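Listing S7. Sequence submitted for prediction.
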Amino acid sequence: MEKLKIWVSRQPIKTALLRLILIGTIISAFLILLFLILWNFLLNSFYQYIATKWFIGGVSLYIGGMIVGSFVILYVVMMITAHFFYQVKLQSPLTQLRFGVTKIQKQDLDFSLKSTSNDELGSLVQAFEAMRQELRDALQTAWRLADDQKQVNAAFAHDLRTPMTVLQGNVELLELQEGQLDTETLKDMKHQLDRINTFIETMSHLSSIQNIHLNPSRVTPTHLDKILRDEVDQLTDHKTIRWTVKTFIQPDSKPILSMATVLEIFDNQITNAFRFAKSKVVINLTIKKDHFEMTVFNDGQQLSSSELSNAKLPYFSTHRAGRHFGVGMYICDQLCQAHQGHFTIQNCDDGNGVRTKAFLNYLD
């Protein structure tokens, strides 16, 4: 019986059903034939009595017994066959699918389904499991974006409070001066307004990044290196810059990247490195067969464990920074994820400086 279950479980549903019906029919025919032989033998034992005293009733009993007995045997065999088919081919996948539907209705996606067969229902279970994983990933992304937006809004409101308080104080001061124009106060008010405009522009940029549309294009390793070098040349800084380029593909290869995204990530890495470096910035570019890496070192002070954990949060800052640098690192992290990669911030192993690394998979 166990071998039969294994054999049936490996068959497609339609094939298994047809073969089980054929097997059930053969078994039914054999049992019906055996029943008819026994029934005929039983009635022959009473032939003398039936033939002389109950001929018509005996004939009716003989024919009716054959029909009813054959039908009962056929019904029982087919019921057993149907139950066997359901138990082997349908019970497990249907149970899993009902379990999955119940979990999803309860908004619980922390479960998994495992197909126990290679037939059509097994494929359906696999497709359902793939759908669950995609749905869970989509919801996690939505929750993360919503949480990031809350953090951005909270940080924006906190940073906006300072210039608004200064502006409010300056307005009250001007009201007390009774018409006398204070140039310094006006300059301070203009500076605070510039800060507010900067915050608003940053907020708009962060919102656009969360819905970014990549524009992929093909680029050779040499052209990619030149574009990034030109980007650094546009930044005026007195730090020493050292370049390292490692290429593991053919010079005429043209991997697909979103260059606007690459440049924005690289610009934020370089800007952050220049801001915190003491004297030296090291840039390592690694171009491999399936991905591209941009690693930027600076020889500034290392980050604490708390700073490393929070450095990619929007508007994160430290007491050592005169300006926020969490926006740039947050942007790098979001853009790397959009480019099917990831972004990391680590202290250098030699105890001197910080390393940021952008890992970008090539686009299709």
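Caption to Listing S7: primary sequence and predicted structure tokens for the chain studied. Residues 120-176 form the longest helix (57 residues). Residues 2-108 form one domain.
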